Prior knowledge:
It is built from four helices and two strands. The protein is mainly alpha-helical. It has a two-stranded antiparallel sheet. The mean pLDDT is about 80.
Amino acid sequence: xxxxxxxxxxxxxxxxxxxxxRGQKVMLDSDLARLYRVETKVLNRAVQRNxxxxxxxxxxxxxxxxxxxxKVPNWHLKI
Length: 79
């Protein structure tokens, strides 16, 4: 669910969405979309269309095999 425009997102809530993966700070697209109050597919489309505006290491996408091998509690990935 996308937050309404009038809802403020607290800094602690943002910090809870930052994960450390292999020594890198990472946010899931769904969490980032919620921060910007858009649907995840809208955020992903915007990034794809404007890829030249982002640094090369801005994002990565898990392969299906790696997503299946993730062992992270409470994550529900749609594969």
